[in-house]
Specification:
This protein is mainly beta. The protein is built from one helix and seven strands, in the order βββαββββ. Strand 4 and strand 5 form a beta hairpin. The radius of gyration is 16 Å and the shape is globular. 9% of the residues are buried. It binds 2'-deoxycytidine-5'-triphosphate. 2'-deoxycytidine-5'-triphosphate binds next to strand 5. The site of 2'-deoxycytidine-5'-triphosphate has 15 residues, from strand 5.
Length: 120
């Protein structure tokens, strides 16, 4: 990741498939989770997210950035399986909870970065 946006390239990733039973086993390591929900953040809100405590209690952490006012898209989070026994996860399992903050005044122009409208 360089200083300029043009000097930023993301690493390749491999798509993991859930089994016929709807579950997948994750070995210890790092994973990018794509959420089902498409979010539309209004111009007078921003959001942060926290993992469900059940993830933490299972030795799994979830990392997120900031949801900017005006962002629309299907977000992603970094899931890290620290548990040396790995972790079983089911398709559509709920992973995190978003916390919304109302701005003192709405922005005139919302988010216009490279992730706007991703995975509609
Ligand atoms: N876990 C998260 C957190 C945020 N977002 C979305 C909402 C943000 O509005 C958008 C952009 O996030 P950043 O501003 O942190 O992105 P960058 O600074 O990396 O890129 P850019 O400046 O090009 O937007 O990504 C996401 O998809 N997944």
């Amino acid at each position: 990741m360089g200083h300029a946006s043009s000097d930023r390239s993301l690493p390749e990733s491999i798509i993991l498939d859930f089994g016929d039973d709807g579950w997948v086993f994750l070995d210890p390591g790092t994973y990018l989770a794509t959420f089902n929900e498409v979010v539309n953040i209004p111009l007078d809100l921003m959001a942060l997210a926290r993992p469900r405590s059940s993830l933490i209690r299972s030795g799994v952490s979830l990392h997120t950035a900031v949801w900017d006012p005006g962002y629309q898209g299907r977000s992603q989070a970094l899931l890290i399986v620290h548990n040396s026994d790995g972790f079983h996860i089911q398709h559509n399992a709920r992973l995190m909870q978003m916390v919304f903050f109302r701005l003192v005044q709405p922005l005139q122009r919302g988010y216009e970065g490279r992730y706007q409208g991703e995975r509609p």
